[in-house]
């Protein structure tokens, strides 16, 4: 069961088409896995359509309506999630649209980072973000780090834990410069994630910082 979801602002920008491509890839991939966020998006789009047609609607009206709808969804009062075909998840670690990005890049091409970890940069036309797949070996941590910008991490397989919580398939973690953490893959299974950043990570270890340009992290 997915416990960590996209925040409302991210869904609002995705719905409005104002997210950069890198963020949108991760958001759409999460939507493929998360019925709650698909329902939130569908209802948000309906609300947006209504207020676009209403000349008298103000910003406070939009905010209040969205908060009310979100509360209704979280209370379990939605009987049926509206399916969105373009986000339908297949029984695959890499659901659409991520799978198509991987295929356009020539398939999975892992680059070793050391100690069993690996990454693959996902090419996009967006020069404001970096999208990468990360593979963290079971039971192993990544180096402790903070962030010079924002980072969205979506778990695709396995799970990891850090100072915030435990994140499993479909869960999203948003991080910024206020968070210093050291994610560790859970024992028994490698953790595969998609991570989107808009600035380099800020590693605590001087040695890792020295290697950072060579490893592309």
UniProtKB/TrEMBL annotation:
Signal sequence, renumbered to the chain: none
Pfam families: Cupin_7
Highest taxon of source: Bacteria
Listed InterPro entries: Anti-sigma_ChrR, Anti_sigma_zinc_sf, ChrR-like_cupin_dom, RmlC-like_jellyroll, RmlC_Cupin_sf
Residue ranges of domain ChrR-like cupin in the record: 108-195
Matching NCBIfam families: anti_sig_ChrR
Stated name of the protein: Transcriptional regulator
Organism: Rhizobium anhuiense
